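Meet today's protein:

…
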Amino acid sequence: MKISRRTLLATSAMAAFIFARSVSAKAPPQVTTDIDWPGFLARHDLVWKRLPKIWGEAPFLGNGKLALSVRLAEDGSLRFAVDNVDWYDRRDDSWGWPAYSRSRYLVGAFHLVTPGKITGCDLRLSLHDAELSGTVTTETSVLNIRAFVAADTDIIAIEVSGTHRWEWRPAEAVSTRPPVRTEADFAAYKKNYGHEGRIWVDNPPGERQDADALNAYVQPLLVGGGMATVWLETNGTLIIGNAVSFPDNSALETARAAVLHADITILCRRHRTWWHNYYPRSFVTLPDTQLESYYWIQMYKYGCIARPDGGLIDTHGPWLQKSGWPYITWNMNSQVSYYALQPANRLDMGNGLYNALDRNTETLRRNAQAEGDVAIMGHCSQQDMACPLDIDMRYAREWGNLLWVCHNYWLQYRFSMDEAMLRDRLFPLLRRAVNFYLPHLIEGTDGYLHLPVTYSPEIGESADCNYDLALLKWACGALLTAAHRLKIDDPLTVKWQDIVTRLVPYPTDENGYRVGADLTSGAHRHFSHLMMIYPLYSVNRDQPETLPLAIKSTEHWLNGAIAAKQAAGFTYAVGASFYAAFGRGDDALTTLKALFVRREGIGRIFPNTMYAESGQNIETPLAAAQSLNDMLIQSWGGVIRVFPAMPSGWTDAAFHDMRTEGAFEVSAVRKGGRTQWLRVKSLAGEPCTVEWPGDAPQVYGAQATPLGKDRYRLHLKAGEEVILAAKGVKSFTIAPLPADNVNSFGLPV
C-alpha cells in the first residue's frame, strides 16, 4: 500500500507528540510520610467510661486463633471470655450438617471476682499495642488491669493489681444451635433438611486436671480428641493457654507447655513488635474521623482474626456468641470478609483461606459427590471445608460458592502476580470447580448454553440463575487468561471459550437483572443475582450500553430491601461498594452511613463496631471497610482509579501504599476536591494504566503515554515508580488529616 506524504507527515507528528508527552526528564521527588503511628492510632482507640454489659459493647482481642472479650457478668463479676477458632466437634456427617455434627463450641470464661461490687471502669483498647488497659473501680478499691492476646503465641495474659480472685467457668461442649435430642426433634430435622440425622449424644463431661502448680480443664470429644485450658497466676498476672487436638489427646500437653514457657516480658515485646510492624503496610486518612476510626478498628480486627499460617475467618470471627450459625458460611459471609485485605496491602493475612483451599483439595472433590476431576463448596463447613452438597437439602443446588471463593483466590493472584500460585494452586482448583458445571450445561434451541435449576443464595431456585451464570462466565474467562499466560495447552480451552461465547445472556425484566429465568428479583437483602456488577465487575461503568441496566438493577435491589425492612447490615455495606463501582460517591457514603444510623431491617452495629443478626456476623463490619477502600481506589479491568468515588463533601483525603491488581503500590493525596498527586510503584513489572481526570499531569520518574479518556499508560519495570502531579504541586508528603471526633467507639460517655 502506498502511503502519501501528508499521511506520513501526520503520522510522524503524532508519534513525535506522543513521544514528547511520554518521556519524563524530571527525576522523581521523594515521597515522605509524616505519621506518628502511636498518636494517630490513639485517636481511634476504643474507650470505656462505663462498664460493658453485652458482647456488642465489650473490648475484644485476638491473634487469629485465640480470642478474648471482656464484659460485666450477670452476677457482677468481670467476665473474660476465651475463644478458640479450632474448638469444634469432629463428628461425621451421619450426625447432620455442620451446625449439628461439627459445630463450633464456646470455651468458657475467667471471672474476676472482687471483695466489693464492681461499680465502674476507665478502660482503653490501644490499637497500636493491641492491649486493653485501665482501671476497674469497686466499692472498696481501684484495680489496674492490662490484658493482651500474644500476637505470635497461643497465650493470653491478664494483669490485675489489688485484691481479687479468679474463677474458671467452662462452657458446655454443645452446639449453640439446639441439637436433636428427642424423637420430635428427629422428625423435625428430617423434614427440614431432607436427612435423618441422629439423636444427640453428649460429649463426655469436662474435668479438672490440675498438676504441678498448673490449673487445667480438659473437655474431651465423643469421637476422640478434645480441648484443654491451662492457667497459672503468678505475680498478679493470669497466664492462660488453650489448645485443641484431634484425633489424639495432646491438647493438655500443648497448653501446659505454652504456659510453662511463657515469659510475659518477652511475649509482650514480641507482641508489640508484631502489631507495630503490621499497621504501616498501608495508610488511610479521611475527612470524617468517625469513619476513619471505624476503618482502622477493622484493620485492628483483621489483626485479631487472621494470620498467614492461621485458620479461616468464620461467620463470627474468633469471638463466638450464642447463635444458630456456629460455622463458616460459604454463600457470602466468608468471601466478603477477605476483600479489604488486598487493597489494604495485607495480602498475607488472607493466606489462611488460600492455604486451606490447597490443603483440602480432596475434601473439595468429595463435597461434589460426583465422578471426575471436580470440586465444589457447599453451604457451610468448619475449618476442614467438609460440606457435601446434599447434607442439607435446602442448599443442594447452591453450586456457585466455590467459584466465588476462587474469585477471592484470583484477586489474591492479581494483587500479587504470583505466577507460581496461579500455575500450581489456583488454576487446578478453578478448573475443577468449572468441571462440576460442564455435564449440566444444556444447549437450547436458541443456540445458547443454559443451566438447569440452581439456587441463588438466600433468594431461591431457578433455571439460568444469574448467580451461577455470572460466576461461570467469569471463571471460564479467568481460565482462558491463565492458560494463555502460563502457556498451557489445555484440552478444555475450546470448551471454556464456547461457554464465554454462548452462555445464555443474563435474564432481565423491567426491574433489571432477574434472579434467574424463572424468578424475578423481589425484596431481599442478598445481592447474589447481581454478581456480574459486584464483585466481578463483568458489567461496569466502562460499558455505557449496560450501565443504565446495572444501576437500575442495583437500585431496585437496594431500595426494595430497605422499603420491605429486609436490608441487613451487609446490604448497606456492599450496596455502598456497588455505588462506588458506578463512581457515585455521595450515594456510596449515604448508603454506608445508613448502616450506623438505621433502626429498621435486619441486624445492627454495636458500640464496639461488632455487628449481629443472630449472634456475631463478622463480615458486615469488614465489608464496610472494603466500601471505604472502593471509594478511595479501584483497579478492576486493568485500570488504576484513584479517588474514583469520592463524596462531594470529601474534598481532602490521602492514602499510602494501597495495593492494586497488577501488584502496584499506590499513594495519593487529594486537596480541595482535586487529586494533587499520585505515586505508582510496580512490584512485578506488569502493564499499568491509570486514570488522571482533568488537565495533563506533571510526570516524574518514568514514561507516561496518554491514551485518551483521562487515561495514561505508565512504563514501569519491577521496582520502578512514577509520580503524576497537578501543575504547581511541590510537596509530596502523606500525613493524617485533622481529627474532628476522636475515640467515638466503645462506651466513651
About this structure: Residues 282-641 form a domain with the Glycosyltransferase fold (CATH 1.50.10.10). The longest strand covers residues 118-126. The first helix runs from residue 5 to 22.
